[in-house]
Amino acid sequence: MLAMRTALAGALLAACAPALAGTVTVITSFPKDLTQAYKTAFEKTNPDIKLEILNKNTVSGIAYVRETPAGQRPEVFWASAPDAFEVLGRDKLLANASSLANKDVPDKIGSYPVNDPGGMYLGQALAGYGIMYNTRYIKAHKLPAPRQWKDLLASEWFGHVGTTSPSRSGTMHLTVETILQGEGWDEGWRTLLRMSGNASAITERSFGVPDGVNNGQFGAGPVIDFFGLSSKYSKFPVDFVYPEETAIVPANIALIDGAKNTEEGKKFIAFTLSKAGQELLLEPRISRLPVLPYSQLAGKIPEGYPDPSEIARRSKVHFDAELSQSRYYVVQSLYDQTVTFRLKELQTATKAIYDAEARLGEKARSGKAAELLERARKLAWTPLIDGKQAADPQFLAIFGGNKKDAAVNQKITQLEGEWNGKAKANYEEAARLAREAMSL
Questions:
Q1: Residue 349 phi, psi dihedral angles, 5° rounding
Q2: Taking the CB of residue 401, how many other CB atoms lie within 10 A of it?
Q3: Using an 8 Å Cβ cutoff, are 211 and 238 in contact?
Q4: Which of 169, 293, 355, 415 is the most exposed place for a label (fewest CB within 10 A)?
Protein backbone atom coordinates (compact mmCIF):
# COMPACT_ATOMS: atom_id res chain seq x y z
CA MET A 1 0.00 0.00 0.00
CA LEU A 2 2.79 2.36 1.00
CA ALA A 3 4.63 1.55 -2.22
CA MET A 4 1.51 2.34 -4.25
CA ARG A 5 1.08 5.72 -2.49
CA THR A 6 4.74 6.57 -3.06
CA ALA A 7 4.47 5.71 -6.77
CA LEU A 8 1.25 7.74 -7.11
CA ALA A 9 2.83 10.75 -5.38
CA GLY A 10 5.83 10.50 -7.67
CA ALA A 11 3.63 10.36 -10.75
CA LEU A 12 1.63 13.42 -9.64
CA LEU A 13 4.83 15.33 -8.89
CA ALA A 14 6.23 14.48 -12.30
CA ALA A 15 3.02 15.59 -13.98
CA CYS A 16 3.04 18.96 -12.21
CA ALA A 17 6.77 19.70 -12.65
CA PRO A 18 8.03 21.27 -15.88
CA ALA A 19 9.72 18.76 -18.17
CA LEU A 20 13.49 19.06 -18.46
CA ALA A 21 13.71 19.79 -22.16
CA GLY A 22 17.40 19.07 -22.48
CA THR A 23 20.78 20.65 -23.10
CA VAL A 24 21.70 22.95 -25.96
CA THR A 25 25.35 22.56 -26.90
CA VAL A 26 26.83 25.54 -28.72
CA ILE A 27 30.12 25.33 -30.62
CA THR A 28 31.66 28.78 -30.75
CA SER A 29 34.97 30.60 -30.94
CA PHE A 30 33.59 33.62 -29.07
CA PRO A 31 35.16 34.75 -25.76
CA LYS A 32 33.71 33.86 -22.38
CA ASP A 33 32.49 37.41 -21.65
CA LEU A 34 30.08 37.08 -24.56
CA THR A 35 29.04 33.45 -24.14
CA GLN A 36 28.51 33.74 -20.37
CA ALA A 37 26.23 36.75 -20.82
CA TYR A 38 24.07 34.81 -23.28
CA LYS A 39 24.10 31.67 -21.14
CA THR A 40 22.90 33.59 -18.07
CA ALA A 41 20.17 35.51 -19.93
CA PHE A 42 18.93 32.51 -21.93
CA GLU A 43 18.76 30.13 -18.96
CA LYS A 44 16.90 32.78 -16.95
CA THR A 45 14.14 32.96 -19.58
CA ASN A 46 14.28 29.20 -20.30
CA PRO A 47 14.87 27.55 -16.89
CA ASP A 48 14.15 24.08 -18.27
CA ILE A 49 17.04 24.28 -20.76
CA LYS A 50 20.73 24.15 -19.93
CA LEU A 51 23.16 25.91 -22.27
CA GLU A 52 26.53 24.19 -22.72
CA ILE A 53 29.31 26.18 -24.39
CA LEU A 54 31.93 24.21 -26.30
CA ASN A 55 34.69 26.70 -27.08
CA LYS A 56 36.77 25.82 -30.13
CA ASN A 57 38.44 27.86 -32.82
CA THR A 58 36.41 27.89 -36.03
CA VAL A 59 38.56 25.36 -37.89
CA SER A 60 38.46 22.89 -34.98
CA GLY A 61 34.73 23.47 -34.63
CA ILE A 62 34.10 22.51 -38.25
CA ALA A 63 36.17 19.35 -37.79
CA TYR A 64 34.27 18.47 -34.60
CA VAL A 65 30.89 18.71 -36.32
CA ARG A 66 32.15 16.65 -39.26
CA GLU A 67 33.47 13.90 -37.02
CA THR A 68 30.42 13.63 -34.72
CA PRO A 69 27.79 11.13 -35.92
CA ALA A 70 24.26 12.27 -36.79
CA GLY A 71 21.99 12.17 -33.76
CA GLN A 72 24.86 13.04 -31.41
CA ARG A 73 25.91 16.40 -32.83
CA PRO A 74 25.72 19.70 -30.95
CA GLU A 75 22.77 21.94 -31.72
CA VAL A 76 24.27 25.31 -32.64
CA PHE A 77 27.30 26.62 -34.53
CA TRP A 78 28.07 30.28 -33.72
CA ALA A 79 31.05 32.08 -35.24
CA SER A 80 32.20 35.14 -37.14
CA ALA A 81 33.41 33.61 -40.39
CA PRO A 82 30.73 33.31 -43.12
CA ASP A 83 33.00 31.10 -45.21
CA ALA A 84 33.04 28.54 -42.38
CA PHE A 85 29.25 28.28 -42.65
CA GLU A 86 29.58 27.88 -46.40
CA VAL A 87 31.91 24.93 -45.75
CA LEU A 88 29.43 23.36 -43.30
CA GLY A 89 26.56 23.98 -45.71
CA ARG A 90 28.45 22.45 -48.61
CA ASP A 91 29.02 19.34 -46.47
CA LYS A 92 25.27 19.20 -45.65
CA LEU A 93 25.85 19.60 -41.93
CA LEU A 94 23.37 22.46 -41.39
CA ALA A 95 19.57 22.43 -41.06
CA ASN A 96 17.39 25.15 -42.54
CA ALA A 97 16.82 27.93 -40.01
CA SER A 98 14.93 30.49 -42.10
CA SER A 99 11.83 30.22 -39.87
CA LEU A 100 13.88 31.62 -36.97
CA ALA A 101 14.85 34.86 -38.71
CA ASN A 102 13.86 38.15 -37.07
CA LYS A 103 11.69 40.02 -39.59
CA ASP A 104 13.01 43.39 -38.37
CA VAL A 105 16.57 42.59 -39.52
CA PRO A 106 17.43 44.22 -42.89
CA ASP A 107 18.11 41.99 -45.87
CA LYS A 108 21.59 43.43 -46.47
CA ILE A 109 24.44 45.34 -44.88
CA GLY A 110 25.85 47.33 -47.78
CA SER A 111 25.64 44.85 -50.65
CA TYR A 112 26.14 41.77 -48.44
CA PRO A 113 23.15 39.58 -47.39
CA VAL A 114 22.70 39.50 -43.61
CA ASN A 115 21.12 36.04 -43.73
CA ASP A 116 22.07 33.18 -46.02
CA PRO A 117 19.66 33.37 -49.01
CA GLY A 118 19.17 29.61 -48.69
CA GLY A 119 18.25 29.91 -45.02
CA MET A 120 21.06 27.67 -43.78
CA TYR A 121 22.51 30.27 -41.39
CA LEU A 122 21.48 33.65 -40.01
CA GLY A 123 23.38 36.84 -39.25
CA GLN A 124 23.38 37.35 -35.46
CA ALA A 125 25.78 40.30 -35.22
CA LEU A 126 27.83 42.37 -37.63
CA ALA A 127 31.59 42.32 -37.67
CA GLY A 128 34.33 44.41 -39.23
CA TYR A 129 38.06 43.83 -39.45
CA GLY A 130 40.77 46.30 -38.61
CA ILE A 131 43.70 47.37 -36.44
CA MET A 132 43.77 47.50 -32.66
CA TYR A 133 46.62 49.44 -31.07
CA ASN A 134 47.85 50.36 -27.60
CA THR A 135 47.92 54.15 -27.21
CA ARG A 136 50.53 54.10 -24.42
CA TYR A 137 52.76 51.68 -26.29
CA ILE A 138 52.92 53.69 -29.51
CA LYS A 139 53.62 56.88 -27.55
CA ALA A 140 56.46 55.23 -25.61
CA HIS A 141 58.00 53.81 -28.83
CA LYS A 142 57.34 56.98 -30.86
CA LEU A 143 55.22 55.10 -33.40
CA PRO A 144 52.53 56.79 -35.51
CA ALA A 145 48.96 55.67 -34.86
CA PRO A 146 48.07 53.21 -37.66
CA ARG A 147 45.07 53.95 -39.88
CA GLN A 148 45.59 51.60 -42.84
CA TRP A 149 47.10 48.12 -43.25
CA LYS A 150 50.05 49.70 -45.10
CA ASP A 151 50.96 51.65 -41.94
CA LEU A 152 51.97 48.39 -40.24
CA LEU A 153 54.46 47.62 -43.04
CA ALA A 154 56.85 50.47 -42.19
CA SER A 155 60.31 49.57 -40.89
CA GLU A 156 59.68 51.39 -37.58
CA TRP A 157 56.97 48.82 -36.81
CA PHE A 158 59.44 45.92 -36.90
CA GLY A 159 58.94 43.75 -33.80
CA HIS A 160 55.90 45.70 -32.62
CA VAL A 161 53.09 43.77 -34.36
CA GLY A 162 51.17 40.79 -32.99
CA THR A 163 49.23 38.48 -35.28
CA THR A 164 47.83 34.97 -35.53
CA SER A 165 47.25 32.40 -38.25
CA PRO A 166 44.06 31.83 -40.28
CA SER A 167 44.34 28.11 -39.51
CA ARG A 168 44.05 28.95 -35.80
CA SER A 169 41.40 31.63 -36.03
CA GLY A 170 38.30 32.08 -38.17
CA THR A 171 38.40 35.84 -37.57
CA MET A 172 42.01 36.00 -38.76
CA HIS A 173 40.99 34.02 -41.83
CA LEU A 174 38.38 36.70 -42.55
CA THR A 175 40.98 39.42 -42.02
CA VAL A 176 43.36 37.72 -44.44
CA GLU A 177 40.59 37.27 -47.02
CA THR A 178 39.51 40.89 -46.59
CA ILE A 179 43.04 42.05 -47.45
CA LEU A 180 43.32 39.60 -50.35
CA GLN A 181 39.96 40.64 -51.80
CA GLY A 182 40.61 44.34 -51.21
CA GLU A 183 44.10 44.43 -52.71
CA GLY A 184 44.07 41.42 -55.03
CA TRP A 185 45.88 38.12 -54.49
CA ASP A 186 49.46 39.16 -55.30
CA GLU A 187 49.45 42.61 -53.66
CA GLY A 188 47.41 41.28 -50.73
CA TRP A 189 49.98 38.58 -50.02
CA ARG A 190 52.78 41.15 -50.18
CA THR A 191 50.94 43.10 -47.49
CA LEU A 192 50.46 39.97 -45.37
CA LEU A 193 54.08 38.87 -45.70
CA ARG A 194 55.45 42.31 -44.88
CA MET A 195 53.10 42.71 -41.91
CA SER A 196 54.08 39.24 -40.69
CA GLY A 197 57.76 40.11 -41.14
CA ASN A 198 57.18 42.94 -38.66
CA ALA A 199 55.47 40.59 -36.18
CA SER A 200 57.09 39.65 -32.92
CA ALA A 201 54.88 36.57 -32.51
CA ILE A 202 52.16 34.39 -34.05
CA THR A 203 49.66 33.76 -31.25
CA GLU A 204 47.93 30.41 -30.69
CA ARG A 205 44.38 31.84 -30.79
CA SER A 206 42.73 34.99 -32.14
CA PHE A 207 42.27 36.48 -28.67
CA GLY A 208 46.04 36.27 -28.11
CA VAL A 209 46.45 39.39 -30.28
CA PRO A 210 44.00 41.68 -28.40
CA ASP A 211 45.25 40.33 -25.07
CA GLY A 212 48.80 41.19 -26.14
CA VAL A 213 47.77 44.68 -27.26
CA ASN A 214 45.86 45.24 -23.99
CA ASN A 215 48.83 44.32 -21.82
CA GLY A 216 51.47 46.06 -23.93
CA GLN A 217 53.12 42.94 -25.36
CA PHE A 218 52.31 44.24 -28.86
CA GLY A 219 51.89 47.74 -30.16
CA ALA A 220 49.20 46.78 -32.68
CA GLY A 221 47.69 43.90 -34.56
CA PRO A 222 44.88 42.84 -36.90
CA VAL A 223 41.70 41.89 -35.01
CA ILE A 224 37.96 41.61 -35.46
CA ASP A 225 36.29 44.80 -34.26
CA PHE A 226 34.60 43.47 -31.12
CA PHE A 227 37.98 42.64 -29.56
CA GLY A 228 39.14 46.22 -30.03
CA LEU A 229 35.83 47.86 -29.15
CA SER A 230 35.21 45.79 -26.01
CA SER A 231 38.68 46.68 -24.70
CA LYS A 232 38.22 50.35 -25.59
CA TYR A 233 34.82 50.60 -23.88
CA SER A 234 36.20 48.67 -20.90
CA LYS A 235 38.76 51.49 -20.46
CA PHE A 236 41.92 49.75 -21.63
CA PRO A 237 44.48 52.17 -23.17
CA VAL A 238 43.65 51.02 -26.69
CA ASP A 239 41.93 52.19 -29.84
CA PHE A 240 40.55 50.46 -32.91
CA VAL A 241 40.35 51.66 -36.53
CA TYR A 242 38.68 50.31 -39.66
CA PRO A 243 41.05 50.60 -42.66
CA GLU A 244 39.65 51.38 -46.10
CA GLU A 245 40.12 47.71 -46.94
CA THR A 246 37.71 46.27 -44.41
CA ALA A 247 34.52 44.29 -44.66
CA ILE A 248 31.33 44.46 -42.63
CA VAL A 249 29.90 40.96 -42.74
CA PRO A 250 27.55 39.00 -40.48
CA ALA A 251 28.79 36.90 -37.62
CA ASN A 252 26.47 33.96 -38.03
CA ILE A 253 24.53 31.40 -36.07
CA ALA A 254 23.23 28.11 -37.47
CA LEU A 255 21.29 24.99 -36.52
CA ILE A 256 23.38 21.87 -36.95
CA ASP A 257 21.73 18.98 -38.79
CA GLY A 258 21.55 15.70 -36.87
CA ALA A 259 21.63 17.38 -33.44
CA LYS A 260 20.29 15.80 -30.23
CA ASN A 261 17.93 18.58 -29.11
CA THR A 262 16.92 20.47 -32.23
CA GLU A 263 13.83 22.23 -30.83
CA GLU A 264 15.77 23.59 -27.87
CA GLY A 265 18.54 24.70 -30.23
CA LYS A 266 15.96 26.68 -32.22
CA LYS A 267 14.90 28.48 -29.05
CA PHE A 268 18.46 29.63 -28.38
CA ILE A 269 18.94 30.90 -31.93
CA ALA A 270 15.64 32.80 -31.74
CA PHE A 271 16.71 34.34 -28.42
CA THR A 272 20.01 35.66 -29.84
CA LEU A 273 18.06 37.39 -32.63
CA SER A 274 15.40 38.89 -30.35
CA LYS A 275 15.58 42.47 -29.12
CA ALA A 276 16.78 41.25 -25.71
CA GLY A 277 19.47 39.12 -27.36
CA GLN A 278 20.58 41.99 -29.58
CA GLU A 279 20.80 44.43 -26.67
CA LEU A 280 23.28 42.09 -24.95
CA LEU A 281 25.72 42.82 -27.79
CA LEU A 282 25.96 46.44 -26.62
CA GLU A 283 27.29 45.63 -23.15
CA PRO A 284 30.79 47.22 -22.78
CA ARG A 285 32.57 43.90 -22.22
CA ILE A 286 30.98 42.52 -25.45
CA SER A 287 30.73 45.60 -27.75
CA ARG A 288 29.48 44.00 -30.93
CA LEU A 289 27.46 45.52 -33.76
CA PRO A 290 23.81 44.32 -33.76
CA VAL A 291 22.01 43.15 -36.88
CA LEU A 292 18.87 44.90 -35.67
CA PRO A 293 18.75 48.50 -36.97
CA TYR A 294 19.76 51.16 -34.45
CA SER A 295 16.21 52.54 -34.72
CA GLN A 296 15.00 49.33 -33.05
CA LEU A 297 17.45 49.83 -30.17
CA ALA A 298 16.72 53.47 -29.35
CA GLY A 299 18.48 54.71 -26.23
CA LYS A 300 20.76 51.65 -26.05
CA ILE A 301 23.52 52.68 -28.49
CA PRO A 302 26.60 54.12 -26.70
CA GLU A 303 27.81 57.56 -27.73
CA GLY A 304 30.30 57.37 -30.59
CA TYR A 305 29.51 53.71 -31.30
CA PRO A 306 30.43 52.62 -34.86
CA ASP A 307 27.64 52.67 -37.43
CA PRO A 308 27.96 49.49 -39.54
CA SER A 309 26.02 50.99 -42.46
CA GLU A 310 28.47 53.90 -42.68
CA ILE A 311 31.51 51.61 -42.45
CA ALA A 312 30.10 49.38 -45.20
CA ARG A 313 29.47 52.44 -47.39
CA ARG A 314 33.10 53.61 -47.05
CA SER A 315 34.74 50.19 -47.45
CA LYS A 316 36.54 49.31 -50.67
CA VAL A 317 35.84 45.61 -50.18
CA HIS A 318 32.71 43.83 -51.39
CA PHE A 319 33.32 40.57 -49.59
CA ASP A 320 32.72 37.41 -51.63
CA ALA A 321 32.03 34.48 -49.27
CA GLU A 322 31.95 31.95 -52.12
CA LEU A 323 35.42 33.00 -53.28
CA SER A 324 36.68 32.79 -49.72
CA GLN A 325 35.13 29.34 -49.24
CA SER A 326 36.57 28.03 -52.53
CA ARG A 327 40.16 28.70 -51.43
CA TYR A 328 39.61 28.29 -47.68
CA TYR A 329 42.20 25.57 -47.09
CA VAL A 330 44.65 26.89 -49.70
CA VAL A 331 44.92 30.22 -47.89
CA GLN A 332 45.37 28.52 -44.52
CA SER A 333 47.99 26.12 -45.78
CA LEU A 334 49.99 28.71 -47.72
CA TYR A 335 49.99 31.07 -44.73
CA ASP A 336 51.19 28.33 -42.36
CA GLN A 337 53.97 27.08 -44.63
CA THR A 338 55.29 30.56 -45.48
CA VAL A 339 54.55 32.50 -42.29
CA THR A 340 53.54 30.46 -39.23
CA PHE A 341 56.23 27.79 -39.59
CA ARG A 342 58.84 30.11 -41.11
CA LEU A 343 58.35 33.25 -39.00
CA LYS A 344 61.93 33.29 -37.71
CA GLU A 345 63.40 33.21 -41.23
CA LEU A 346 60.89 35.81 -42.46
CA GLN A 347 61.76 38.10 -39.55
CA THR A 348 65.48 37.71 -40.26
CA ALA A 349 65.05 38.55 -43.95
CA THR A 350 62.83 41.54 -43.15
CA LYS A 351 65.30 42.90 -40.59
CA ALA A 352 68.22 42.45 -43.00
CA ILE A 353 66.39 44.46 -45.67
CA TYR A 354 65.58 47.25 -43.20
CA ASP A 355 69.18 47.35 -41.92
CA ALA A 356 70.55 47.60 -45.44
CA GLU A 357 68.11 50.38 -46.38
CA ALA A 358 69.01 52.34 -43.24
CA ARG A 359 72.77 51.87 -43.64
CA LEU A 360 72.89 52.71 -47.34
CA GLY A 361 70.49 55.65 -47.35
CA GLU A 362 70.38 57.20 -50.83
CA LYS A 363 72.76 54.52 -52.14
CA ALA A 364 69.92 51.99 -51.71
CA ARG A 365 68.04 53.71 -54.54
CA SER A 366 70.45 53.07 -57.40
CA GLY A 367 73.25 50.88 -58.70
CA LYS A 368 74.22 47.43 -57.56
CA ALA A 369 72.87 47.91 -54.02
CA ALA A 370 69.40 48.84 -55.33
CA GLU A 371 69.39 45.78 -57.59
CA LEU A 372 70.34 43.44 -54.74
CA LEU A 373 67.76 44.94 -52.40
CA GLU A 374 65.00 44.68 -54.97
CA ARG A 375 65.80 40.99 -55.46
CA ALA A 376 65.77 40.52 -51.67
CA ARG A 377 62.35 42.19 -51.35
CA LYS A 378 60.87 40.02 -54.10
CA LEU A 379 62.18 36.83 -52.51
CA ALA A 380 60.92 37.78 -49.04
CA TRP A 381 57.56 39.33 -49.87
CA THR A 382 56.22 37.65 -53.02
CA PRO A 383 53.68 34.80 -52.63
CA LEU A 384 54.84 31.36 -53.74
CA ILE A 385 51.78 30.90 -55.93
CA ASP A 386 50.28 33.68 -58.03
CA GLY A 387 46.64 34.68 -58.43
CA LYS A 388 46.21 32.63 -61.61
CA GLN A 389 47.26 29.38 -59.94
CA ALA A 390 45.23 30.21 -56.81
CA ALA A 391 42.11 30.43 -59.00
CA ASP A 392 42.77 27.20 -60.94
CA PRO A 393 39.82 24.84 -60.27
CA GLN A 394 42.03 21.74 -60.51
CA PHE A 395 44.45 23.18 -57.96
CA LEU A 396 41.64 24.19 -55.61
CA ALA A 397 40.09 20.75 -55.95
CA ILE A 398 43.17 19.19 -54.34
CA PHE A 399 42.65 21.12 -51.09
CA GLY A 400 38.89 20.75 -51.27
CA GLY A 401 39.13 16.97 -51.56
CA ASN A 402 38.29 14.33 -49.00
CA LYS A 403 40.96 14.57 -46.27
CA LYS A 404 40.41 10.90 -45.44
CA ASP A 405 41.59 9.94 -48.95
CA ALA A 406 45.25 8.88 -48.73
CA ALA A 407 46.00 10.13 -52.26
CA VAL A 408 44.56 13.57 -51.47
CA ASN A 409 46.53 13.80 -48.25
CA GLN A 410 49.71 12.73 -49.99
CA LYS A 411 49.35 15.44 -52.65
CA ILE A 412 48.62 18.14 -50.05
CA THR A 413 51.55 17.02 -47.92
CA GLN A 414 53.82 17.14 -50.98
CA LEU A 415 52.72 20.67 -51.89
CA GLU A 416 53.06 21.90 -48.31
CA GLY A 417 56.54 20.43 -48.08
CA GLU A 418 57.56 22.18 -51.29
CA TRP A 419 56.16 25.53 -50.07
CA ASN A 420 57.86 25.20 -46.71
CA GLY A 421 61.23 24.40 -48.24
CA LYS A 422 60.91 27.12 -50.86
CA ALA A 423 59.94 29.74 -48.26
CA LYS A 424 62.97 28.87 -46.13
CA ALA A 425 65.32 29.07 -49.12
CA ASN A 426 63.80 32.37 -50.31
CA TYR A 427 64.06 34.04 -46.92
CA GLU A 428 67.64 32.90 -46.40
CA GLU A 429 68.64 34.13 -49.87
CA ALA A 430 66.83 37.44 -49.27
CA ALA A 431 68.79 37.97 -46.05
CA ARG A 432 72.05 37.13 -47.82
CA LEU A 433 71.36 39.56 -50.66
CA ALA A 434 70.44 42.34 -48.22
CA ARG A 435 73.68 41.82 -46.30
CA GLU A 436 75.62 41.83 -49.56
CA ALA A 437 73.98 45.12 -50.50
CA MET A 438 74.80 46.58 -47.09
CA SER A 439 78.46 45.61 -47.52
CA LEU A 440 78.64 47.85 -50.57
A1: -65, -45
A2: 15
A3: no
A4: 293
pLDDT in tens, 194-250: 999 999 999 998 889 999 999 999 999 999 998 999 999 899 999 999 999 998 989
304 phi/psi in degrees, rounded to 5: 80, 10
What is the greatest pairwise CA distance in the chain? 107
Burial code (b: 16+ CB inside 10 Å, e: under 16) for 183-213 equals bebeebbbbbbbbbbbbbbbbebbbbbbbbb
Give the pLDDT band of residue 358 (cuts 50, 70, 90). Answer: very high
Cα–chain center distance at 321: 13
Angle formed at CA 60 by CA 247 and CA 84, multiple of 5 degrees: 35
Residue 60 near residue 237 (C-beta atoms within 8 A): no
Q: What count of other Cβ atoms lies within 10 Å of the Cβ of residue 145?
A: 13
What average pLDDT does the segment 125-134 reach?
95
Q: For residue 356, what pLDDT band results from cuts at 50, 70 and 90?
A: very high
Q: How many CA atoms lie within 13 A of 208 on its CB side?
A: 16
Q: What is the pTM of this model?
A: 0.83
d(CA 40, CA 285): 15
